[in-house]
Amino acid sequence: MPFLSVRMRASLLGRHVSGAERIISPEEIPPILCELIRRPKKYDAMKITIEKVSSVEVIRNSLKIRSYKFSSPEDGREFAVKELVKAGVPETVAQKGVELLKGGPGPGGRVMRGAVLLDINSGERLEPDRARGIRTTKIDWKDRESVRKKLLGAGFTERTLDALALATKNIHCGVLAELCWSDDPTYTAGYVAIPDRGYVRIDPLKHEGDPLGGRVYFILKDRLKEVMGCLQERAMLIDSLQL
Ligand code: COA
Ligand code: AMP
After folding, report:
1. Residue 90, preceding bond cis, omega within 30 degrees?
2. CA–CA separation, 141 vs 102, rounded Å?
3. 75-109 residue pLDDT tens
4. pTM exceeding 0.70
5. Contacts from 143-150 at CB under 8 Å and sequence distance 24+?
6. Can you give the C-alpha Rg of the chain in angstroms?
């Protein structure tokens, strides 16, 4: 059966405000387009991409979710570093990841349009373009609606549904650990994703009102090309949610 990657992005005054994607069969195009175009609250431009994908791999299970609460972002960040160290990231490199997101990882201390790639051993930045970074795309849930119900029923949000899918694909593609907190000033939680521990949600990882954030993927430099290809090109569906 042919599959399609459908991606929507919207901007307001030249600034990215909303993005979403699905992997669907052709008969699902009308309802999915209706859903995606309603997603951004306010925008002045929207782009929809519909692209045929030749094959779709199935990831059996999502990363398992664990949640930790802290009284300050400083404590949350300290915990994040400890989790990254457990995944084999040297402490100095883990700390570099935190500092990059704290200061804005893009040129001039701005946010990026994708993720930073750091060599797990040396901390060297590997992404070809420091303003753009690398975006993980072509990932979705096999039965998104039932996973959504389960996750929302367990007290999580739609945002976690999407972030969990993205992090699951990242680990599947050979990212050895990921650190993320949003650039949305109102959203202070973030996560560390690690193969053995899963999706470790950490609340808070930044102060309310802080407009900086991003994603750092810790990878092996020798596998740069292969990991980038997987993150950007290989289409994947996740079968089951692990709670
Ligand atoms: N942040 C900032 N700018 C973005 C952006 C983002 N997340 N996504 C797209 N843009 C802007 C950039 O200017 C980009 O140009 P660039 O390639 O030079 O950076 C431009 O839009 C064109 O992007 P496009 O090629 O249309 O996007 P894409 O095909 O790489 O798709 C999205 C990206 C929109 C799918 C992705 O950013 C996104 O939001 N994904 C949703 C994540 C998710 O929830 N996944 C799990 C689903 S279960
Ligand atoms: P968000 O979780 O949407 O608030 O995004 C936080 C940061 O993650 C953004 O500032 C980008 O730098 C980065 N980002 C957004 N989308 C992607 C993606 N699809 N893949 C990798 N990084 C992304």
Report:
1. no
2. 31
3. 999 999 999 999 999 999 999 999 999 999 999 99
4. yes
5. 144/22, 147/62, 147/238, 147/240, 147/241, 150/241, 150/243
6. 17
Residue of 5, 7, 8, 9 with the most ligand 1 atoms within 8 Å of its CB, for mutation:
9
Pairing of strands 235-240, 139-141: parallel
CA distance 111 to 91: 23
Rounded to an integer, what distance in angstroms lies between the CA atom of residue 169 and that of residue 139?
Answer: 7
Query: CB of 7 closer than 6 A to ligand 1?
Result: yes
Both tokens of 32, joined, read: 């999915």
Using the mean position of ligand 2's atoms as its centre, give its distance from the Cα of residue 21 in Å: 13
Please name the residues in contact with 232: beta carbons below 8 A apart, sequence gap of 6 or more: 134, 135, 136, 137, 138
What pairs with residue 203 in β-bridges? 69
Q: What is the distance, to the nearest Å, from the Cα of residue 141 to the centroid of all Cα atoms in its chain? A: 14
